[in-house]
Amino acid sequence: QLELDRRQIQDRVVNLKQQLEKVVQQRNIQRNQRLNGNIPTGAIVGYTNSGKSSLLNALTNADVLVEDKLFATLDPTTRMVKLPGGEEILLSDTVGFISDLPHNLVDAFKSTLEEAKYADFLIIVCDASHPDMIACYTTTVQVLEELGCTDKPAIVLANKMDKVEDAFAVSRLKSLYSPVLETSIKTGAGLDALMNQIGITLHELCPTTTYLLPNSRHDLVAHIHRYGQVESIDYTEEGILVKSRIQVRFQGPLHPFRQD
Length: 260
Hints:
Elements: H1 2-35, E1 41-46, H2 52-60, E2 78-82, E3 88-93, H3 103-117, E4 121-127, H4 133-147, E5 154-159, H5 168-176, E6 180-182, H6 191-205, E7 208-213, H7 218-227, E8 228-235, E9 240-246, E10 258-259
Parallel strand pairs: 1-3, 1-4, 4-5, 5-6
Antiparallel strand pairs: 2-3, 7-9, 7-10, 8-9
């Protein structure tokens, strides 16, 4: 009986690994499609139970599983969000970070953690009511450093402000990072400010720039249409004058024609 149980466990492990590989492959395909698109992407990250899935639900009505336990979110959920200015972004929920994540769990969380790695910007959610919020924030930053994400624009949320009795930790968090927005997903407080801040971040990622392209470079016009948003275009004797908003990572071929 013991040998039979052992074989059943081994078979189960193999089956789970195969399922995990399929999930990773699917996520990679979806991620590549997003990276090749013109819609900026953000990842919601933070210590476990800080309110990440609740935030995604509040902003997108995504109906993401919300549970008060470790690793309630394993497979990332990505949804479209429309900002007050009309711009569209993609937001992904991620697994909750914990301190000293066991190495044997890293592979299981690799796909969801990489949502942060490949995002254009981050929303770091902190539970302001947690008795050791600063340590949780520090753990989150350490995980982001391990993923190579510390160079990304980030918005920090001091969430669950409706449960906060002593705001000292929130003040300390604000001394460590800026901007820090005070929110309560439960009551909706601060979500409008968050949407406005995302809009500001988006404009930093996609600055309005003018290019004077050679009349023969219709391929670059197509590049801008594919990866950016054209605000105006004029065909002149000097060239094609294009005013557009395009993410910095797609501006490479356009740099020689930038008009400062």
